[in-house]
């Protein structure tokens, strides 16, 4: 029961971290997920049978299955290589993990994400000067295209 709870906690935590924003959280989630899957594969080989899988005269009743052990060894190497690759990407990549959205010029497409221009008149004149006066036909831009801006 403890092994099943550990596998569930590792896989659940890994999936949760992989769904968060940011490369470091993604890497932590991948590491947790790979550890949980490795434990799951080892549990598939039989928890109660842990004698050596190969030998001079192995007892079939207590001999561990060598195939899950080989799978886990291979999975550890692959997970380590992928983790190192993702760490290199995190270090050398650009810092695009911010949560700011670039909405300039998309005021009519995403009105719920824009700040209310009536709140701050100075900000309205500085940031919303390119915005159309009102929504065009069907909430679109009307005849104004991307090349019409100064």
First and last CA, distance? 67 Å
Radius of gyration: 28 Å
Which structural class best describes the helix and strand composition?
mainly alpha
Strand content: under 5%
The overall pLDDT, averaged over residues, is 75
Order of helices and strands: HHHH
Number of helices: 4
Major β-sheet annotation: none
What does this entry show, briefly?
The protein has 150 residues and is mostly helical. The chain has helices at residues 2-18, 23-44, 66-92, 121-127.
Strand-helix topology:
Blueprint: H1 2-18, H2 23-44, H3 66-92, H4 121-127
Give structural notes:
The protein has 150 residues and is mainly α. The chain has four helices and no strands. Helix 1 (2-18) runs antiparallel to helix 2 and helix 2 (23-44) runs antiparallel to helix 3 (66-92). The longest helix is centred in the middle third of the chain and has 27 residues, at 66-92. The model has no long low-confidence stretch (mean pLDDT 75).
Index terms:
single chain, 0% strand, 4 helices, 150 residues, elongated, mainly alpha
């Amino acid at each position: 029961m403890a092994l099943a709870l550990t596998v569930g906690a590792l896989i659940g935590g890994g999936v949760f971290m992989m769904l968060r924003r940011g490369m470091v959280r993604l890497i932590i989630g991948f590491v947790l997920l790979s550890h949980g899957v490795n434990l799951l594969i080892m549990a598939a080989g039989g928890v109660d049978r842990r004698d050596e899988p190969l030998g001079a005269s192995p007892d079939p009743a207590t001999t561990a299955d060598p195939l899950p052990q080989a799978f886990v060894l291979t999975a550890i190497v692959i997970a380590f290589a992928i983790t190192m690759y993702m760490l290199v990407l995190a270090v050398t990549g650009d810092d695009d993990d911010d949560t700011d959205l670039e909405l300039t010029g998309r005021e009519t497409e995403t009105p719920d994400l824009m700040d209310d221009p009536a709140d701050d008149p100075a900000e309205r004149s500085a940031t919303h000067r390119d915005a159309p006066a009102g929504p065009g036909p069907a909430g679109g831009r009307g005849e104004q295209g991307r090349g019409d801006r100064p």
